Amino acid sequence: RLWCAPSSSPMSSLKVQLTQAAAPSPPSISFVERYKVAVEARINLKHVHRRLQVVAKLLIVATFVEDALRMLFKFDQQQQSMEIAGWTSPALHTLLPLLSLAVQSCGALLVLASSGVGGEVGCYLLLGWCVWHPFMYGQAGNREFVLETATISGGLLILLSHLLLLRTKAPLLGESGPGAVGTPARVQAVGRVLLVSFFLSFALSLAHSWAVSLPLGAGDGPGVWGRGTQAVELVLSLLVLSLCGLVVLGMKSRHVALLLAAAVFAAAVSVTAANVVTLLLHSSDTFPVEDTAGMEGVEADAATIADHQRYFFFQQLSTVGALLQLVAHGPGQFSVDEADAESITITSITSKGAD
Q1: Is the pTM of this model over 0.85?
Q2: Helix, strand, or coil here: 177?
């Protein structure tokens, strides 16, 4: 007797078709994902990230290193600055510049040389100096000076939060165990808020100048050019306010911080270059001292003005470094970006790259 294999029934064919239809289809890769894969195939992102961390550290300590060197090589001028700032004791005219030299040089060296406890101590030293600095020079009433210092402090807090996150314990803050993970996140969130201080003031100043320039009645219009200027000021102020809000919320904050860093760097280079050309062409003239509280209406020679401009240039470089800290280390746990799986992946790469 011959044995024949039973033919598949219609019911079996239907089951096979339903099983195939229920199987999940492979996810489609977007253009952005394909672009990222192509970039990663050609560029080692870990090496790029390490270099970004180094550049961000160098820039954020730039103003502290420059100010320490100023104390060392222009000590007599710094003693005069202490007298102008209102310190009446001759002993303080010497002690305060020495304190400035010690704190800023030690803090900057520790930040650059260590990614452990030494780096944390360096951050604490420089943060303490940022708080004391405006009072030492009598610039506590200089809003622009104070807010730019606050922005640099925000970058230092972001760096400090990253250093704390690299350890399972945070003994310097008296915490250990699971609570040690929450401390870096809180420090990082405060750092993001301080990071936008200078830009928030800039946006509000633009909005104020726009409001003041509005016509109060018929015939008070500013003309075509004036109306165009008002529109630009309004749009720019709203744009900067929006960018500040994104950084505080931690939404696309890396991209926003990179954009702001590029803008500050371009402004620092262009303004400094213009001032250098002006001082070279008019080296024998005197110029009004600007952006310094207590010296309104005072004129100084070209060398003194150049010294002031150099200080502001390095302060702006440190502002760029503060923004790059956010680009390098991300917005942290208390942010909108943290809900994105891509942001979590970048954070893990950051931690591994720093080890």
Answers
A1: no
A2: coil
Burial class (CB in 10 A: 0-12, 13-18, 19+), 283: exposed
Q: At what angle do helices 253-281 and 223-249 cross, to 10 degrees?
A: 130
For 175, the 3-state DSSP assignment is strand
Residue with tokens 């790059």: 324
Scan for tokens 């940022």, then name that residue: 130
Residue 11 burial by CB count (10 A; 0-12/13-18/19+): exposed, middle or buried? exposed
Which tokens is 18 given?
Answer: 């339903």
Are 79 and 94 contacting, i.e. CB atoms less than 8 angstroms apart?
Answer: yes
Report the run of H or E that residue 308 belongs to, with start and end: helix 302-329
**In which residue are the tokens 């400035």 written?**
100
How far is residue 62's CA from residue 68's CA, in Å, rounded to a whole number? Answer: 10
The least confident of 121-130, 234-243, 331-340 is 331-340
Residues 60-113: tens digit of each pLDDT: 999 999 999 999 998 998 888 898 888 989 999 999 999 999 999 999 999 999
Tokens 């253009």 belong to: 31
Transcribe 279-307 into DSSP letters. HHHTTTSEEE--S-TT-TT-EEEHHHHHH
- Cβ 250 vs Cβ 332: under 8 Å: yes
Residue 111 contacts residue 59 (beta carbons within 8 Å): no
Q: How many CB atoms lie within 10 A of CB 64?
A: 29
